Amino acid sequence: MSPRHVVPGFSWHRPMGPREPAEEHRTATVLELFFDLCFVTAVAQAAAALEHEVTAGHTGHGVLGYALVFFAIWWAWMGFTWFASAYDTDDVPYRLLTLVQIAGALAVAAGARDALEHLDFTVITWGYVVMRLAGVAQWLRAAAGDPERRTTCLRYAAGILVVQLGWLGRLALPDDAGLWSFLVLVAAELAVPAWAERHAATTWHPHHIAERYGLFTLIVLGESITAAVATLRGLLDEHALGDLLPVGVGGLLTVFSLWWLYFLRTEPKRLGSLAAALRWGYGHYAVFASAAAVGAGFALAAEHAGHGQHSEAPDLTTAAVFTVPVAVYVLVVRLLQREPEPPGLLDGLWGAGVLAVLAVTFAPSPVLATGLVLAALVVAVVAVTHRRARAAAVRGGA
Fold first, then answer.
1. Which residues of the chain have pLDDT under 70?
2. Rg (CA), the chain
3. How far apart are CA 111 and CA 355, in angstroms?
4. Which pairs with CB-CB distance under 8 Å and at least 24 residues apart come from 196-199?
5. Which of 19, 200, 250, 388 would bridge 368 by S-S if both were Cys, CB 3.0 to 4.6 A apart?
6. At 3, is the secondary structure helix, strand, or coil?
7. How many CA atoms lie within 13 A of 85 on its CB side?
8. Please, which residues bridge with residue 91 across strands?
9. Mind spelling out the 3-state secondary structure of the chain?
10. Which residues, 6+ apart, have CB-to-CB distance to 124 below 8 Å?
11. Residues in Cβ contact with 219 at an 8 Å cutoff, skipping those fewer than 6 apart
12. What string of H, E and C letters represents the secondary structure of 321-376?
């Protein structure tokens, strides 16, 4: 079956054939946007639980739990996003199964704190499995409607189903087997797309994928700002504005700069092969997780600026919980955006920015220093990029 264009509008039922990968004006649907907004609830709960663990002095435990919980959020979002790009029919069965996935995401959100604080993954596992099993039903429907890629769709369905049985079986394992079994199942999850797509690639839409990732990055950054404002509002009831102003200014500069650096360019042209798509998709685990962690780090820094003496977490740890995610975000965004060319001035600027952010962990006001470093990085990168564009235009007109 050849790829097709889906006319927007409600329908009780449409055959689930492949979408046209070059379809014009392909944008995120209202259902996809609703999906993202519900998923960010789980992101916010994971970030809040990370903040709580660091405040209690359990930094290593909290960071590990956060990384594990965020995998469940990110991977379920990934599975829905790429499937929707290739097979979205926007009919009643598709919408209902998507709503089931959203319900699973809310269960993940409800179980995030227990997973981080007590490594109790019972609720989060069942929520995750619900999301993924709804995805299995979608892939089986796609297999019925796309004969050319039926084997690919069945591989997805079988691979996801087997791994979900593994997640449920993991709940019965002793505690000392928890981490290694988690890593084994993560590897299995990551291997399913590469194995399935090897037979016949699904018809995902490069522009649609790039937009979806950009929108979710926006939402996660917005959630970080929301958490920051809520923290500052609570502290202003007890402390002077002057005590919190450096943290507030630095936090805003940081988030504004993270937004600017991500959207320096669009990336659809990079998604022309399976290998490139996997690098882009998998690399965004670090982008999303670090962007969400920035909000937790900001909240901790603000609390220390107001009444840090009430927290068990040392100042250096608090600063690192903010600066390290920022540095990871900047580094990974650069790696994802980088042209395949020899290292040059832009690489040097981005690298210097990452090192400077890590260095200001030891500064008296690390949040403000981070914001100033990133603002300077944005100015420098924009100036160099603009100069290169002008030089290319001159050469092209010669």
1. 1-10, 234-243, 266-270, 272, 305-314, 396-398
2. 22
3. 36
4. 196/152, 196/153, 196/155, 196/156, 196/159, 197/152, 197/274, 198/274, 199/149, 199/151, 199/152, 199/155
5. 250
6. coil
7. 22
8. 11
9. CCCECCCCCCECCCCCCCECCCCCCCCCCHHHHHHHHHHHHHHHHHHHHHHHHHHCCCHHHHHHHHHHHHHHHHHHHHHHHHHHHHHCCCEHHHHHHHHHHHHHHHHHHHHHHHHHHHCCCHHHHHHHHHHHHHHHHHHHHHHHHCHHHHHHHHHHHHHHHHHHHHHHHHCCCCHHHHHHHHHHHHHHHHHHHHHHHCCCCCCCCHHHHHHHHHHHHHHHHHHHHHHHHHHHHHHHCCCCHHHHHHHHHHHHHHHHHHHHHHCCCCCHHHCCCHHHHHHHHHHHHHHHHHHHHHHHHHHHHHHHHHHHHHCCCCHHHHHHHHHHHHHHHHHHHHHHHCCCCCCCHHHHHHHHHHHHHHHHHHCCCHHHHHHHHHHHHHHHHHHHHHHHHHHHHHHHHC
10. 69, 72, 107, 108, 111, 112, 114, 115
11. 36, 37, 40
12. HHHHHHHHHHHHHHHHHCCCCCCCHHHHHHHHHHHHHHHHHHCCCHHHHHHHHHHH
The size of the chain, in residues, is 398
Confidence (pTM): 0.89
SS3 content of the chain, % helix, strand, coil (to 5): 80, 0, 20
Name the nearest CA neighbour of 377 among 236, 266, 263, 257: 257
CA distance 103 to 109: 10
- pLDDT tens, residue by residue, 132-184: 999 999 999 999 999 999 999 999 999 999 999 999 999 988 877 778 999 99
- Give tens-digit pLDDT for 302-322: 777 665 444 444 478 888 999
Q: How far apart are CA 322 and CA 290, in angstroms?
A: 9
Residue type (1 letter), 344: G
The set of residues, in sequence order, having a beta carbon less than 8 Å from that of 270 and lying 6+ positions away, is 276, 280, 336
Cβ 190 vs Cβ 282: under 8 Å: yes
Q: Which token pair is 371?
A: 């914001």
Is-contact 358 238, C-beta < 8 A? Answer: no
